[in-house]
Amino acid sequence: MKDGKPKNARLNKHAAAPVATADLVVSPAGQVVRAVIDGKPVFFTLTNTKDVIQKEHLAGRFYETEELEIIRAHCPKNAVFVDIGANIGNHALFALKMLGVKQVIPFEPNPVAIAVLTSNLGLNGELARCDLSHLGLGLSDKPQDGLAMEVDKPNKNLGGGRLVAGGDLRVIAGDEALAKAKVDFIKIDVEGMEMQVLGGLTQTLERCRPVIFIEVDEANRADFLAWVEANHYDIAATFRRYPVNENFLLKPARKGAKG
Fold this sequence. Notes:
Layout: H1 9-14, E1 19-20, E2 25-26, E3 31-37, E4 40-46, H2 52-58, H3 65-74, E5 80-84, H4 90-97, E6 103-107, H5 111-123, E7 137-140, E8 144-150, E9 162-165, E10 169-173, H6 174-177, E11 185-188, H7 194-199, H8 202-208, E12 211-217, H9 221-230, E13 233-239, E14 245-252
Parallel strand pairs: 5-6, 5-11, 7-10, 11-12
Antiparallel strand pairs: 1-2, 3-4, 8-9, 8-10, 12-14, 13-14
């Protein structure tokens, strides 16, 4: 809180009011890039070419291609793909355009990122395969109001935002949001809140046993590995891009493989 204003006021002030419907898509102010990737046209919305992800989009490619190839190798066909920490839609758009998933259910609390995300989905004609009813929400292990999005480097890494106290954003448990969904794949990238997110997905994971691709901060590594064992998942692949975290691809353990 600064001068009586919530911490996410600066981000909200710059958030566009885009339109993304089946009949009309109005992107935030900026540029649109058209690229052909694997023989398919892909449109990227750019509002800040200094942003680490949008710099890759400006070059006509997806961000984190190594991680995306791990997802490609393990995502079931016709999957319902849940994107927790969807940011501007890099992974969601890859799943829709390159993997042909049945549906994407994104979660993203950052209003600035949501503007670009919905534009990317709309410009690529993918709104019909998306459930956008949870945009504006973050996930945790229990409901909480009064949160703000704090971004250390908003001009360079919009996706590095963390939820802190002092704003008008809120989180809910994933089980509440996904109670009626048959989930096949879950991607989690939540800047250190992964254990809380997993805690709020207990019923969904027990019911659906989805494949999980998750970024884990080093500070949470021991707790995460204990969670993997306790919840009967196997680590099928890993990838480390940065020293402070590592990505894990988890698949349900085969019956009889765990005690």
